[in-house]
Design goal:
about 70% helix; mainly alpha; single chain
Length: about 190
């Protein structure tokens, strides 16, 4: 039993599932963002845009199952390792995009809104990789009663922690995308 591994798998699973659903719902938006990034060869943009959503949904669902402790440690670790690799690839890709666009408002294409690529998008992918790595190093092997910590309480803590981590991590880039000049409701600059 690993509370940290469960929370990490749950957080990454939820974010990947949400991003995958976003990519499935808007493959043209994903392709448009990938083209704007200018990193992938032109012929690969369409296949990558069509593959990304199903990959994220499947991996996200797998990590959610792994977080329940229903999988043996081997498959749970493999899913978490795949999540770590995918999130590291996202971090490296977004780092390259960020350097390439040099502050231009290019959409992230993360499936989680229209946040532009920036250091916080790179940081989000890095945090997700670290959370997935927790599930590699300490996979959930089932929830057993431990002295002073009933299995239900352990599961509740893992679900609450994983949910909070998922929301905080997913919202990170959008929270930092603050306009340079804010105005009040009366259109008065602040």
């Amino acid at each position: 039993m690993s509370l940290l591994g469960g929370a990490g798998a749950l957080a990454v699973g939820l974010v990947l599932l949400a991003a995958g659903v976003g990519h499935l719902r808007g493959p043209r938006d994903t392709a448009r963002a990938l083209r704007a990034h200018g990193v992938l060869p032109g012929g690969s943009v369409g296949p990558v845009a069509r593959t990304l959503g199903p990959l994220e949904v499947c991996l996200g669902l797998g990590l959610l199952v792994a977080a329940t402790g229903l999988l043996p440690p081997g498959p749970a670790r493999l899913l978490a390792l795949a999540g770590t690799a995918l999130c590291l690839a996202f971090a490296a890709y977004l780092w390259v995009v960020q350097r390439r666009v040099a502050g231009a408002p290019v959409p992230c294409g993360c499936g989680l809104g229209t946040t532009p690529v920036g250091p916080w998008a790179v940081a989000r992918a890095g945090v997700l990789a670290a959370l997935a790595l927790l599930a590699v190093l300490a996979p959930v092997t089932g929830w057993q009663d431990a002295p002073g910590a009933p299995a239900g309480a352990q599961l509740a803590v893992a679900v609450l922690a994983g949910g909070a981590l998922a929301v905080a991590t997913a919202a990170l880039p959008a929270a930092r995308a603050v306009p340079e000049q804010l105005t009040t409701l009366a259109r008065v600059p602040r």
